[in-house]
Design goal:
This protein has a six-stranded mixed sheet with strand order 3-4-2-1-13-12, with no helix packed on it. The longest helix is centred in the N-terminal third of the chain and has 25 residues. About 35% of the residues lie in helices and about 20% in strands. The chain has two domains: about 80 residues, no CATH class; about 210 residues, Deoxyribonuclease I, Chain A, CATH 3.60.10.10. It has eight helices and 13 strands.
């Protein structure tokens, strides 16, 4: 029994020291993209640190060194994650606010075999905007046939489904070799045009990730942002320097706060404990947030994200309350 306790303590000691080192190193991720990759696993460092601290407090032999390592891991992870819980997610609006629009962001996964489930759930949601990453033609055709919705980006892997046709599609020019994949269009609403943009960034380990982030900032900067809604699979967590940089430089506010959407499946079966918040919805200063929720498992390796917004300045006749799109 004593040898087993020593083995557990040694393992926790090693894990806590490794977590503390990774957390400290990843704090420099804003200066080195390779170190920033470590920041995505901050919740893991926190869990390991807490487990090691609990074990240290229960077992006297070797307590001091284990407790120091555990506290270093907890503080390092906490430093990475604190901003996500302290930052503003923008203005808030009550459930009954007028002009609401419901947005669903979902990476439906190319290999998803549950498309009928996806289509039925989306229709039941009665959304105003659906943005799909890894979209497929069969999903597109089924949705259009059953709903009468309109689609922008119908031939690509990023699609925007809406009740109304878009007014115009202005695509800011990108460098010839740009790796950024995005779709966008302007839509009518009682309060004026709404610019919808959706994107799918590579994993942060990819050589193209940094250039995609740079080009996304350029696209957003050249479009009207007051009533813009930006969605997508960003493949980046809120505790990473890369996403914190987007948060501060886009001129938009990210409305989700630490809602994990990945992984939703493991080896083809549902996984009920997602750990990584990598799907996000941003909105311009003309919007207030009514609600942000994670949807159910729909056969993909991502969970959907459902965001309801309301315009800050209500148009129309006093007393009238209509949908925003």
């Amino acid at each position: 029994m004593q040898s087993r306790t020593l083995s557990l303590r040694s393992a926790l000691q090693f894990a806590a020291m490794l977590s503390a080192a990774a957390a400290v190193a990843s704090a420099l991720g804003s200066y080195d993209a390779r170190l920033d990759i470590l920041a995505h696993f901050a919740p893991g460092y926190l869990v390991i640190g807490i487990a090691a601290a609990v074990h240290a407090l229960l077992k006297k032999p070797g307590r001091a060194m284990l407790l120091v390592s555990a506290l270093a891991a907890v503080l390092g992870a906490g430093n990475l994650m604190a901003n996500e819980f302290l930052r503003s997610t923008g203005s808030m609006a009550p459930n009954g606010a007028c002009g609401q629009i419901k947005i669903v962001q979902f990476n439906s996964q190319r290999t998803n075999s549950e498309l009928s489930r996806v289509v039925s759930w989306l229709i039941d949601q009665d959304p105003d905007v659906v943005t799909i990453s890894e979209a497929r033609s069969d999903l597109r055709d089924t949705l259009l046939a059953r709903t009468g919705w309109n689609v922008a980006g119908r031939k690509g892997s990023l699609m925007i489904f809406t009740r109304h046709r878009y007014i115009i599609m202005r695509r800011p020019p990108l460098p010839p070799q740009s790796e950024l994949n995005y779709a966008n269009a302007s839509y009518p609403s009682p309060g004026g045009p709404i610019e919808i943009v959706t994107t799918h960034l590579s994993w942060p380990t990819s050589a193209t990730y940094a250039s995609q982030v740079r080009d996304l900032k350029s696209v957003v900067a050249r479009l009207p942002r007051e009533r813009m809604i930006l969605t997508g699979d960003f493949n980046s967590t809120p505790w990473s320097g890369s996403l914190r940089g987007l948060d501060s430089e886009l001129g938009l506010t990210r409305r989700d706060r630490s809602i994990a959407t990945y992984p939703a499946s493991l080896l083809g079966t549902p996984w009920p404990v997602p750990a990584l918040p990598i799907d996000h919805v941003y909105a311009g200063p003309g919007w207030a947030t009514v609600s942000v929720e994670r949807g159910p498992w729909l056969g993909s390796d991502h969970y959907p994200l459902v965001v309801v917004l309301a315009p800050l300045h209500q148009p129309g006749t006093p007393g009238a309350c209509e949908r925003g799109m």
